[in-house]
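Record type: ASSEMBLY
Status: queued
Input:
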Amino acid sequence: MSNSGIKRRVGGWFEERLGLDSIRQFAAHKTVPVHSATYWYYFGGITLFLFVIQVLTGVLLLLYYRPTPAEAYESVQFIVTRVQFGWLVRSIHSWSANLMILTAFIHMFSVVFLRAFRRPRELTWLSGVALLGLALGFGFSGYLLPWNTVSYFATKVGTDMAASVPLVGSHLARFLRGGEDVGGATLTRFFGFHVAVLPGLTSLLLLVHLGLVQKFGISLPPWVETLYRGREKNIPQMPFFPNFFLRELMAWYVALGVLGSLAAIFPWELGEKADPFASAPAGIRPEWYFLAPFYTLKLIPSHVGFVEGELLGLFGFALLAIGWTALPFWATNQQGADRARLVTGTAIALLAYLVTFSLLGYWR
Amino acid sequence: MAQDRRTLIRWLLGSGFTASIISFLYPAIKFMNPPSVPEASTNEITAGKVQDLKPNSGKIVKFGSRPALLIRLNETEWRAFSAVCTHLNCTVQFRDSTRQSWCACHNGFYDLNGKVVSGPPPRPLEEFVVHVRGDEVVISRRA
Amino acid sequence: MIPQTVFRNSLASILFLLLPIEVLEAKDSCVECHGAMEGNLQAPALGFPTDVHQHRGFGCADCHGGDRNQDDPELAMSRARGFLGKIKRTAVPQLCARCHSDADLIHKFKPQQRVDQLAQYRTSVHGKKLAAGDEAVANCVDCHSVHNIREVRDPLSPVHPLNLPETCARCHANQTHMAKYKIETNQFQDYRKSVHWEALAKRGDLSAPSCASCHGNHGATPPQVGSVAAVCGTCHTLFEELYNKSPHKPVFASMGMGGCVVCHSNHAVLAPSDDMLSGNTAVCAQCHEPSSAGGKAAAEMAQSIGNLKAELNRSEVILTRARRSGMEVSEALLELREGQEALVKARVAVHAFQISSVSKPVSEGIAISRETYRAGESAMKERGFRRVGLAISLLAIVATLAGIGLAIRSIEGKGQETHE
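Status: finished
Output:
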C-alpha cells in the first residue's frame, strides 16, 4: 500500500474511535485578532510553555532528589555535579520558575490593560488569579527544597509572616511548617505540595482557564471594538493554526534559547547547606516575586496607633488581593461602561508599586 | 524559484527542528542514566577490601569531601575516625608503635577512642562506624 | 533563777534546730556563735558552709584550736584547749601543712592528692621571703582564700585556671605593692594581650597556660633563661625539638637570652604570622643584618613561604570558581587541604632556622597546589565545553526559528486571509 494510503488507514482507525475530526474543525476555525497589541497575546502561551518545562525538568529532578534534611542538599549537589547534564536540568528548572512567574505577571497586566477580563470572561480572570496564586505557591514551596541557608531562612521568614495573620495565623503557620519550627517536617510537606498538591490543582485550573478561553475566543481590546463597531466581520483575524501557532512556536523556541543560555552562563548556585542552629545571615530576603510585600512590611513601623504594624501590612495586602481579584466586578459601572481611568490608573499604580518596592527590597 | 524557496524552508525547518529536538532530548536521556556513583549523600562509603589493609595499620580514605582514617587493629577489629585534626585541620595518621593517631603538624595524639591524649587538639576525633560486608570494608556515620 | 548552763543549753538546742542541715551532722559552737555576730567576726562563719573543709567534717577548731562542743566561749576558746586565735601570716604555711603534708591523712580523702606543697613553697621566692619575716608576700590563704576555700576545679575558686591570673595580679600588678621588690607590674597586662589568655578566657580552653603553668604554683619561680624552651616545650613539643637542634640554641645560651622568649615574648605572646620573618615587623631583623647569612636566610624563608601561600591561593580561587559553576572538584579540594597542611608544616619548620628545613615542606606544598590548579583548569575547561554545547543548541534553535519565520512568510504570502 502507498504511504499516504497507510496514513489514511491509520487516521481512519483513530478517527472512528476518537472523533478527532470535530477537534480538527474547531481548531481550523479558531482565530486571533490582529491589531497593534497582538503581541501581548503570546504571554499566556509562553507561561503555559514554561509551566510544561517546569513539569518536564521537575520530573527529571524527581529521579534523584531526596526530600529529607540529611539528604536534600546532598542530592541537589549530586545532581549538579555527578549526574550527566544535571547542572543543565537543575538550572533550567530554577530559571524557568522565575521566568514563568515573570511572564505570568506580564500576562495578567496585559489582560488588565487590554480589558480582557470583561463580561463574559470574569471566570477566566478568577481562574487566572488563582493560577497566579498557585504559581507563587510553587515558587515558595520549591524554594525550600534545595535546603540551603537562603531557602531555610526565607521559609522561616515567610511562615513567620503567615503566623501573624489574626485568629488563624498560628494554625496556618503550623499547617505550613508541619510543626512548630521549620524543619524536616516542613521539607516533606513542601515537597508534597510542590510535586503533588499544587500540580494537581494547577492542572484542574488550567483546564478551566484554557477551556474558557476556547469557549469565548480571544478578546478584543476596547479601542478595536469601538473602531469596528457595526463592522465586526471586518476585524483583521489570523488563523490560530498554523499562523498564530507558528509564531507562538517561535516565541517558545526563543524562550528555550534564553533558558539554555541562562543555565549555561549563569548557573544556579548551590549555596551552603542549611544549619538550623546558625543565626540568620545578614540581608536575608525572599525571592524577587515576594520582595515588594517583604520590603513594605519592613518599612511599616512596629506599631501604628494601637495596631501592630505587621498586622496592618498583612491586612493591607489582603485588601489589595481581594480588590484585585474582584476587578471584573468593579471595572464597569452600573450601565456597563468601562471605568477606564480608574482601572488603568489602579493598574499603573499597582505596577509602579510592585516594581519600585521590588527594586528597593533588592538593593536595601 | 518558489520551489527552491520552499525546499529551503522545508530543509531549514526540518533539520533545525530535528537538531533542536535532539539537543533537548540528548541531555534528558543522559540525565536519566544513573551515574557510576549512585549514592548522593556521604553517610556511607566503601573503603576498600579487607585484604587491602594489614593488621595494626591505618590508611586515609575519602569520606565525602573530607579525609577519614581507617585503622585495622587486628584480624577482626576495625576503627574509623575523621582524619581532620581538631586543632588546625591537618590530616592525622596512624602510629602502629603506640597504637595512637598522630598529627604531624603540632604533635597532637589521639587514642583508639578518638580522645585527645596529649598535644594541642581541643576536641576528640569524630568516630565512624565500621562494618565488614563480605570482603568489603564499609565506613558509615554514627546514627 | 535558771542555772546559766541550763539556759545556755536550751538556747543552744533552739539554735541547734534552726541551723542548716549540714551542720546538724556535728556540733560546731564556733559557727553557731560567730554566725550570730556582725562584721568581721561574722564573715568567717558566713562563708564556711561553702568551704571544702567543712564538707569533709572539719570545723574552725581544727585549724584555730579550741573546743567546738563547748558553748561557753571561755571553754570553747581556751588556750588550755589549744586555741590559737588569729593565725599570724608567717605561721600560715606550717599550719596548713600540718594536714596537707600528712600523706596518710590526706589520702584518706583524696588518694591522688599531692602532699609536697609546703616543701615546694619553701623553694619559692614567696616562701623564702615569708620565712625571713616579710609579711607582704603571698602565703596559702592569699591565693586559696580562707574560711571559704573551694577546690581548684571549682569555677569560683581564686586558683581555678580561669581566675588564677587575676589572683596573681592582685599583688603583681600593684605598683605600690611591688615597688620595694623592684619587680615590674606589667605582666598581667601583657598576658591579657596574648593568645594564651584568649584561649583560656574567650575559648574556655582550660589546657591553655596561665601564670602557674610556666612559673609553677607552690614553688613559684620564674623559669631560668636556660629552661625557657623546655617550659614552652611542655606543650609546644615540636618547636622545642627543632629549636634544640638549631643554631639559635647555643647562640642564645651564650648570650644569656631565653630561647623562645626572644622572638615570642614571655607574657605578651601574640599570634605569630609570616610577617615575623621579613618586613617592618620582622623579629629576625632585630639581630640579623639583611646582608648577613642569617638575614639572607630569613628573607629566603619568608619568600619561600610567601610563594607557597600565593600558589595555594591561586588554586583555591580557581577551584572555588569551578565549584560555584557546578563543577565536581571535591577530590581536588581534598588534595588542596594537604597543600595547606604543608604550609602549616613549613611554618613549624622555620624553628629549625635552616633554609633546607623550610624548603622541603614548601616544595611539597607547591607541587600539590600546582596539581590542584591543573584540576581546577580542567574543570573550567568542562565549563567551556558547556558553552560550546550551548552554542550548538542555539544554532539549532536559530535555524529552526529561521525556518518557522520563512514558513510563516510563505504561508501568508500565498494570499491567506490576513489583513496586515
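Annotation: Chain C touches chain B at residues 203, 205, 207, 235-238, 330-331, 333-334, 337-338, 340-341, 344-345, 348, 392-393, 395-404, 406-407, 410 (CB under 8 Å).
Annotation: The longest helix of chain C spans residues 355-413.
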